């Protein structure tokens, strides 16, 4: 179970959600712990275990990346943490088990913009749902559009933007509502390398200024090492935590690409994943 109330309205159109507190400059410190999470789904061939015995904790303001083979339950895990999907067993404890489960921002690969809303209104959506006055929410949304490089596109519609620009809208919407927790499910997975690198920099710049807890799912091992304080490596299905690897490199890390320490850590993670991928192929 997830302790405290949950709210599926934390995610709009499968994208960035809204916070449950007024929009201050910094979110309230938050921590949580997953305890022995298991999730089973019914299928035509019987019951399928997506997660089994997943346990880990995330401290306030940490940036934790999760990598694992395709189909290992990474997205399922994020939705359980967000309170959008109940675990079959186990629980998520917020604030040491004494606090309520917060609403969080969820950013997914599909970016989830509302096509009938302008870029400005898309970013301001969470603030509107909180009851923030029109002038105040548009002012704050415009500030974040400038921070993600879209200040000149406030009056445009999503169809007029590139895929990378629409993903910037999702990032702005997640941060503007000041959710204490940001859950990101392969947000840059569909982007070309140049756009991905630019958005990684944008994300880290905003996160550094407005520190909040981030859980970031990716298939890109270099991205995980570049962004994360820790990297959780998951097994193939049913997903378990194989290793919890600290990333000790100081920030910023752009200059570390191509260096021996960066390459060694990346290779260590790749070797863990390779074993799981080969195991999965053998099972098939």
Description of the molecule:
The chain has 284 residues and is α/β, with parallel strands linked by helices. The protein is built from seven helices and nine strands, in the order E-E-E-H-E-E-H-H-H-E-H-E-H-E-E-H. It has one domain: 3-Layer(aba) Sandwich (Rossmann fold). The longest helix is centred in the last third of the chain and has 24 residues. It is globular.
Walk me through the topology.
Elements lengths: L31 E12 L2 E13 L4 E5 L6 H9 L6 E6 L10 E4 L10 H11 L4 H14 L15 H14 L4 E5 L7 H17 L3 E5 L3 H7 L2 E5 L6 E6 L13 H24 L1
Parallel strand pairs: 3-7, 3-8, 5-6, 6-7
Antiparallel strand pairs: 1-2, 1-4, 8-9
Helix pairs in contact: 2-3, 2-4, 3-4, 4-5
Compute the CA-based radius of gyration.
19 Å
Strand order of the largest sheet: 5-6-7-3-8-9
**What is the SS-derived class?**
alpha/beta
Strand percentage: 15-25%
List keywords for this structure.
single chain; 284 residues; alpha/beta; Rossmann fold; 21% strand; disordered N terminus
Give a quick rundown of the structure.
The protein is α/β, with parallel strands linked by helices and 284 residues long.
